[in-house]
């Protein structure tokens, strides 16, 4: 806890003391980053997720490309099935979110969860998880190759690391993706306020 | 490529349950001797036109992509200088095209921690800290300036480099969040604990990586590839 704060303070300290470190971007009039966003994931990608050349496996075992759900907005996040602490809360948050979206818009939103754990989380495991959590047909659980999982995490601004005991340290972020594949709203952390995401969904 | 022997490496940031000062084993792997140069990168673009300047999806590179290249090509004098203004996605694609991959952070750091022959770790830190303190040059020098004990060049003193898992630490810098950030944001209660706060040199690299997004490009950010 304390250490994280120290880390943060130090990074900021460095930021002000080493000018070159924070400012080695060209100043393009239309894009500037580096100074304001010296830390952690706080923005999603620009561009369409459908440009990702990745094929996933669904919990049914079928091959799945994200652009197969082109045409309807969806909520996407990453998790892993054996995670005991945050993931169950993340999934509960997403259930709550899906419920609210249905109340507000009358539509059942499509929910997508992609596993960090390429080794353990095969379709069978994910299908069992989906059943155990009693999640409906609008939920898809995807697994894929390690490099593809990493690529998606980069696109979604989710940080993760596999640690030696087989667990993963990861950030909890869910994103609303428009029918064109753009990330139009992001919520970070479990138990966070989802109003803006829901409002955005209504506009889509 | 240089064969990097298996070894032990002490991560700068410790995992939640590992002991302070614990080392992790690194398997033997191959690492490019030099950062990828402008010339090499232009060969990649020749055969992969989807990575041409101005052709790349905003998902894969920001507007700065290949920003130092005038029009379609690099300056002649920069032929053997590291290619920069490349995104993680483009670096990844280049390495795959070569039948290689980006090095993992642990691999890159392990190789980078090896001092030049006959020197100690202090010598490495001196190179890095001098570089941090210098004014950045308008034009990067040719690769081949600084050599470590494994025969790998220029991991320090020239550019920052992409690693495969650059987004593996969750340092959150959002002041709007409360200080209880880990418990709401992390699984497994993982919190960051730096193994050695005196090691500013590495600290900077971790800080730099934490601020990156996969589509960012920057004047002093390049890459090299690795292989199993």
Compute the number of helices of chain A.
Answer: 6
The sequence of SSEs of chain B as H and E is EEEEEHHHHEHEHEE
Portion in strands of chain B: 5-15%
Continuous helix count of chain B: 6
Work out the radius of gyration of chain B: 18 Å
Q: Name the poorly predicted regions of chain B.
A: 172-192
Structural class of chain B: alpha+beta
Report the radius of gyration of chain A as a whole number of Å. 18 Å
Q: Biggest sheet of chain B: strands side by side, in what order?
A: 1-5-9
Keywords (chain A): Copper, Disulfide bond, Metal-binding, Signal
GO molecular function (chain A): metal ion binding
Organism (chain A): Leptospira kanakyensis
Pfam families (chain A): SCO1-SenC
What are the SSEs and their pairings?
The complex is a heterodimer of chains A (204) and B (228).
Chain A: H1 2-17, H2 19-22, E1 56-58, E2 63-64, E3 74-79, H3 86-105, E4 110-115, H4 123-132, E5 139-143, H5 146-156, E6 160-162, E7 168-170, E8 173-177, E9 183-188, H6 195-203
Parallel strand pairs in A: 3-4, 4-5
Antiparallel strand pairs in A: 1-2, 1-5, 3-8, 6-7, 8-9
Chain B: E1 2-4, E2 7-9, E3 13-14, E4 24-26, E5 29-31, H1 38-47, H2 88-97, H3 105-112, H4 121-133, E6 160-161, H5 181-185, E7 193-194, H6 200-210, E8 221-222, E9 226-227
Explain the overall architecture.
The complex is a heterodimer of chains A (204) and B (228). The model of chain A is unreliable at 1-42 (pLDDT under 50). In chain A, 34% of the residues lie in helices and 19% in strands. Chain A is globular and about 40 Å long. Chain A has a single domain (2-203), classed as Glutaredoxin, CATH 3.40.30. In chain A, strands 2-1-5-4-3-8-9 form a seven-stranded mixed β-sheet, sandwiched between helices. A two-stranded antiparallel sheet of chain A has the order 6-7. In chain A, a hairpin with a 5-residue loop joins strand 6 and strand 7. Chain A has helices at residues 2-17, 19-22, 86-105, 123-132, 146-156, 195-203; strands at 56-58, 63-64, 74-79, 110-115, 139-143, 160-162, 168-170, 173-177, 183-188. Chain B is α+β, with helices and mostly antiparallel strands. Chain B has helices at residues 38-47, 88-97, 105-112, 121-133, 181-185, 200-210, and strands at 2-4, 7-9, 13-14, 24-26, 29-31, 160-161, 193-194, 221-222, 226-227. The radius of gyration of chain B is 18 Å and the shape is globular. Chain B starts with a strand and ends with a strand. Chains A and B meet through helix 1, helix 2, helix 5 and strand 7 of A and helix 2, helix 5, strand 7 and helix 6 of B.
């Amino acid at each position: 806890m304390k250490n994280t704060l120290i880390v943060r303070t130090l990074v900021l300290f460095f930021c002000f003391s080493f000018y070159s470190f924070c400012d080695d971007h060209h100043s393009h009039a239309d894009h500037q980053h580096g100074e304001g966003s010296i830390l952690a994931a706080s923005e999603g990608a620009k561009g369409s997720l459908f440009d990702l050349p990745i094929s996933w496996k669904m919990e049914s075992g079928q091959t799945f490309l994200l652009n197969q759900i082109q045409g309807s907005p969806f909520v996407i996040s990453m998790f892993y099935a054996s995670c005991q602490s945050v993931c169950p809360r993340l999934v509960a948050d997403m259930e709550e979110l899906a419920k609210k979206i249905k109340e507000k818009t009358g539509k059942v939103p499509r929910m997508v969860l992609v596993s960090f754990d390429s080794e353990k989380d095969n379709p069978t495991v994910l299908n069992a998880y989906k059943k155990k959590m009693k999640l409906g047909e609008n939920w898809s659980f995807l697994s894929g190759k390690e490099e593809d999982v990493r690529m998606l995490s980069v696109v979604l601004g989710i940080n993760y690391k596999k640690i030696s005991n087989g667990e993963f340290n990861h950030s909890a972020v869910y994103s609303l993706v428009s029918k064109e594949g753009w990330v139009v709203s992001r919520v970070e952390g479990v138990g966070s306020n989802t109003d803006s995401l829901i409002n955005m969904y209504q506009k889509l | 490529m240089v064969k990097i022997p298996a070894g032990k490496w002490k991560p700068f940031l410790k995992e939640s349950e590992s002991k302070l000062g614990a080392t992790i084993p690194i398997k033997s792997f191959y690492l490019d001797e030099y950062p990828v140069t402008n010339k090499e990168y232009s060969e990649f673009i020749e055969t992969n036109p989807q990575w041409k300047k101005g052709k790349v999806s905003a998902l894969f590179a920001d507007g700065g992509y290949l920003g130092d290249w005038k029009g379609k090509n690099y300056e002649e004098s920069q032929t053997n200088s590291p290619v920069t203004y490349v995104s993680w996605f483009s670096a990844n694609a280049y390495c795959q095209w070569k039948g290689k991959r980006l090095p993992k952070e642990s691999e890159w750091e392990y190789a980078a921690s090896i001092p030049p022959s006959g020197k100690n770790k202090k010598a490495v830190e001196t190179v890095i800290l001098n570089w941090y303190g210098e004014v950045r040059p308008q034009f990067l020098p040719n690769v081949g300036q600084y050599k470590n004990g494994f025969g790998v060049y220029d991991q320090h003193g020239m550019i920052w480099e992409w690693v495969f898992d650059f987004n593996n630490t969750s340092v959150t810098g959002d002041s709007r969040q409360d200080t209880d950030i880990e418990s709401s944001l992390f699984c497994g209660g993982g919190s960051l604990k730096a193994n050695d706060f005196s090691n500013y040199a590495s600290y900077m690299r971790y800080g730099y990586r934490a601020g990156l997004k996969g589509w960012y490009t920057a004047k002093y950010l390049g890459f090299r590839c690795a292989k199993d």
